[in-house]
Amino acid sequence: MSVIRFDDVVAQFEHVDDPDVLQMARDNRALKLALDMSRPRNWHGTGLTPDQLLPIARESGIPIAWVPPSKVLKMLVAAEPLDRMQVLLSVETEVVNQCRNLMNECDDLWIEEERTLVGRSIDAYTAGFHEAAMALAVAIGEPLALWASEPRVQAFDSEAEKLAWETQKKSAGKYGVARLELAAVAPGDRLNRIEVLRHALIGPIDKFFTPFYARPGEQVPETVSRHATVHRPTVAHLSKENALLAIMLDVSILRQQQAWAEEVRMDEAFYDEK
């Protein structure tokens, strides 16, 4: 087997959003590696770009990493923003089935508790108890979203830059870390491969942590909200749509935790052999 240099992989990044990328990657190992390193698995072969997909997460709070299926991503891109939730509900069986399949892939002992509880949230949803499903999914989703918000690695060009980030992070509070990172990207900025993967994961978290203080007359957020669910749960907010969003968010982050756990364990095994 021929050796693949990283430069060969880098040269293929410009092709990862091509509609025929899966077919081309069968005979092109560098392209296959570039695809796996730069795009969530459910984006593969859709022909969709980050510019088309990332706004779905930011604007509508809909998870787009690992879930939903590729076919549904295409439907969401084609839909008007106000119609996106109806698109999801029109294919909810397919989306829920994919969530179950992804949970079956989450077999690391580090996430065993979360996997069990997310599975029970899905069970409640499919049994018709979407309010209970959402309440459980949001409870699980808070620590998952906080984990996703915190970068696993953070690099700085200077001590001053590091100090500025830490000051911003402290002022934002634990719920504002993802919002800071998302806001740092100006319209038209070209994201690198790591940023695309990260923004796909954390895109919906800003809306999940929308500030809400349950003050008299304060409007309850429309999309799934941790604060509204905890501080002022209502029948309208604990809707079928929001329950599905909460479950999708849990599955998206938990499947990413599985991938992270696999990487950590591979690194540990490598160094143990040294």
* Estimated structural class: mainly alpha
Query: Which term fits the overall shape?
Result: globular
Helix percentage range:
55-70%
What is the tally of beta strands?
A: 0
What proportion strand? under 5%
Question: Average pLDDT, to the nearest integer?
Answer: 93
Q: Could you spell the SSE succession in H and E letters?
A: HHHHHHHHHHHHHHH
Major β-sheet annotation:
none
Radius of gyration (CA) equals: 19 Å
Total DSSP helices: 15
Structural overview:
By secondary structure, the protein is mainly α. It has helices at 6-12, 21-25, 29-38, 50-60, 70-78, 84-90, 92-105, 112-126, 130-149, 159-172, 177-183, 193-202, 205-208, 226-231, 240-273. Helix 4 packs parallel to helix 12 (193-202), helix 7 (92-105) runs parallel beside helix 15 and helix 8 (112-126) runs antiparallel to helix 9. The longest helix has 34 residues, at 240-273. It starts with 5 loop residues before the first helix and ends with a helix.
